[in-house]
Amino acid sequence: MWNMKQLEYGALARRANQIKKELxxxxxxxxxxxxxxxxxxxxxxxxxxxxxxRQVLAACVYPPLINSSNLPLDVRxxxxxxxxRCVGGSVGSYSAAPGIPEIIHSxxxxxxxxxxxxxxxxENIYISPGSQWSISNILNVLxxxxxxxxxxxxxxxxxHNKTVLSITQLGAVAVPYYLSEEQGWAxxxxxxxxxxxxxxxxxxxxxxxxxxxxxxAGYVQSQKSVLEVIxxxxxxxxxxxxxxxxxxxxxxxxxxxxxxxxxxxEMGPPFSGTVELASFHSVSKGFSGECGLRAGYVELVNxxxxxxxxxxxxxxxxxxxxxxxxxxxNLMTDPPKPGxxxxxxxxxxxxxxxxxxxxxxxxxxxxxxxxPGFSCPPIEGGLFAFPRLHLTPKAIQKAKELGLQPxxxxxxxLLEEGGVFTGPGWExxxxxxxxxxxxxxxxxxxxxxx
Amino acid sequence: MKxxxxxxxxxxxxxxxxxxMSQQAVNGVSHRGRVLTLDSMxxxxxxxxxxxxxxxxxxxxxxxxxxxxxxxxxxxxxxxANIGDAxxxxxxxITFFRQVLALCSYPALLEDSKFPxxxxxxxxxxxxxxxxxSIGAYSASQGIECIRQDVxxxxxxxxxxxxxxxDNIYxxxxxxxxxxxxLKLLVCGEGRDRTGxxxxxxxxxxxxxxxxxxGAVQINYYLDEDxxxxxxxxxxxxxxxxxxEHCNxxxxxxxxxxxxTGQVQSRQCIEDVIRFAxxxxxxxxxxxxxxxxxxxxxxxxxxxxxxxxxMGPEYSNTVEMASFHxxxxxxxxxxxxxGGYMEVINLDPEVKAQLIKLVSVRLCPPVPGQxxxxxxxxxxxxxxxxxxxxxxxxxxxxxxxxxxxRLTEQIFNTVPGITCNPVQGAMYTFPRITLPQKAIDKAKELGLVPxxxxxxRLLDEEGICLVPGSGFGQREGTYHFRMTILPPTEKLKxxxxxxxxxxxxxxxxxx
Lengths: 450, 511
Fold this sequence. Notes:
The complex is a heterodimer of chains A (about 450) and B (about 500).
Chain A: H1 11-24, E1 35-36, H2 51-61, H3 73-84, H4 101-114, E2 125-128, H5 131-142, E3 151-157, H6 161-169, E4 173-178, H7 189-198, E5 204-211, H8 223-235, E6 239-243, H9 260-267, H10 271-274, E7 277-282, E8 296-301, H11 305-316, H12 323-333, H13 343-370, E9 374-375, E10 384-385, E11 388-389, H14 393-401, H15 406-418, E12 420-421, E13 423-424, E14 435-440, H16 443-446
Parallel strand pairs in A: 1-12, 3-4, 3-5, 5-6, 6-7
Antiparallel strand pairs in A: 2-8, 7-8, 9-11, 10-14, 11-14, 13-14
Helix pairs in contact in A: 2-3, 2-12, 4-12, 5-6, 8-9, 14-15
Chain B: H1 4-21, H2 23-28, H3 43-46, H4 55-68, E1 79-80, H5 95-105, H6 117-128, H7 145-158, E2 169-173, H8 174-186, E3 195-201, H9 206-214, E4 217-222, H10 233-243, E5 248-255, H11 267-279, E6 283-287, H12 304-310, H13 313-316, E7 321-326, E8 339-345, H14 349-360, H15 367-376, H16 387-412, E9 418-419, E10 428-429, E11 432-433, H17 437-445, H18 450-462, E12 464-465, E13 467-468, E14 479-484, H19 489-509
Parallel strand pairs in B: 1-12, 3-4, 3-5, 5-6, 6-7
Antiparallel strand pairs in B: 2-8, 7-8, 9-11, 10-14, 11-14, 13-14
Helix pairs in contact in B: 4-18, 5-6, 5-15, 7-15, 8-9, 16-19, 17-18, 18-19
């Protein structure tokens, strides 16, 4: 299903870059620019960075700005605070390997607030250059290459491919469990059960990877679903890896983000004290959208203290996360408060982004479902639409003739003729005989396009 | 928006339903053991150590805490001379770089007349190359194209015109990231066929940590302490042939200028190493992050790429190599930005395709670090407004380091029991300490490696944090420590004085 060695992989991205180059050089095409809706990159899609965040970062980078009356007082004070936590007062020094201690503390407070008061311990939190970095570090600890049978990790289908790549590169086996497209991409425990069974004789599943809200499928798990998954992990002795990057991107009415940490705690013993959990978040999505700064964190729950020591050493050899990213993470978890000079603007910008995202998603859903050959369940959360392509037998045949996956064929034509760069469904996994494309929904209203 | 307590109640109700459903199952099942234990975890990770941030640093942090809480000690601060972090020790950032980065972070400042025009121009160019004109957008995994082009031009200029192809440049999250990535590509095989990687002893422990993590075989070649830590080909040959008995040696790593030893390899030596790599069919990894940190008279940085190409097509068309550089050292000291790159030479195209895939897993290197790297390779030119200040700052940093290098060597060599090779380059000194037998015995009693015992005592008595030589590797029966030359000159003099006093006391105590 995931053909890592296929030359196709990344070929579309290369072609998109080539076309971008040609357009810059003045080559005539039926469009003036490539609309890149391939990645979950909000800034690229036209979202403006939050003013407060960028003002603070600028002042941290160039401290003379702290004395500039052009910047609001709270920005200047905040920059001073952040610099005070940097060794030597510079964002150019290394920080402690897990991250700047005050920032980690701030993250733990954020998690506690989010989860209705359930404590979060700073020593269980590690900051890394983006969430994929800590996901691969944790996978590295979990995957015993010398073990026989090989280590297995259950992953959703569809799934963004980075984690899958990490799993296969470590020599582990990715065991797919299919999300139910008919039920709006719901995660069904029966399917988890089937997937777990299927691993017998093939590999030894040790972990269950969940993405909530989903990527590319835009579901938001119900509370019941989260609890069922935790119970399943408990029963089958699976380490839970939960990717919660899109926790701020929830649009569906009656949808609510429920963190796995919170749900686990609310379940009480024996679950709350035993299920091993790693939850991941970052500054890349949500209202910050600061993917390029590379800052994410992992919170580890119920891990063996002896193993934690080794995890600490593993993160140490990576030096530390970029300090600007750490500061951006801090600003995300500890934003301006009512009464602060920057608060009104901050709130306004957040509301604007939220409105645009909600409208974009609605619009995309409407438009996609009105197009012949497309169908798409409601997008409850996340940044993508993953509509189903109902391709004609002729189109499928043509694709096969060209040696392409049918959805890649479609995406290639969409790129060449329409200048729109999307992701073919096969790169994320899908049920045999079905085709999809992945499309970043936020672009719809941030920028005007044809 | 529902209130928090309502969500809690709902969750609790839901949770009760689910747990009730499985009550029977729960009652029947014994205590669930952990999935992830010392036994089940990746055994390679257990072998990973990283002395630079290891136990001695943890002790230093503990002492700092105690000082903060008002504990009385024979010192008022802990001097962290363990880590190559220039800004932490008070070195100032280069003004021009920080101005451009501030403009990139908050482009509204482009209207601010207090910023010079050349800084604004650079910022605009960088922002133009970013998605949505924001440093917050992902870049291509290999790094922003125009920055890679600038890096290639910098390399060409540095190497006297030898061409550099931007497609062979991969930007990274510090040089460490690129080093680990290349090792991941190179390490394979099982048992006797497992990849062996040659690394100098002493070495920068990122290498030993990465090799342990990847389950590669570490092949040690000893630098010659009696000859200024020079590299001997005979020693390389010895190490290689011994290694061939039990692994498949494929890689030769060299750090030049050296860490922790500070030696700057002669051109002849670099040629010999390249010749050796070709003869023995080894992939060369040249860690050149200290390339601007050269102090000693008669020493000069020669890039491996330059020497390779000057040796003619027989070598330049065949030897496979990767050279590494970063924004963390030299005169910039911007460790916290995690900027870096590698240039790969003669890499098999299919392997390159795998390399692209590897770097794509973590999406892209931090864009501020990429922007900073662009400035390092594209600094103010003589005809630009910021040039004078830039050169002044750069020269001040490098000459201060040169002075401190000289001072350190001079003072340490006057201390009985300490011998110190010249600090020809980089940022460290790695002096040899003679430990009385009684001290060695005491260390063993305490379950400590002798130089760790020494360093712990120094930390407890003087508040100076160094890294024991055992963390870097050294010849059996010899002991060293690594100290950075980064504290400001006056403070450094105090540190050297205190170490001298400690050394005398320590020797006296265990005589």
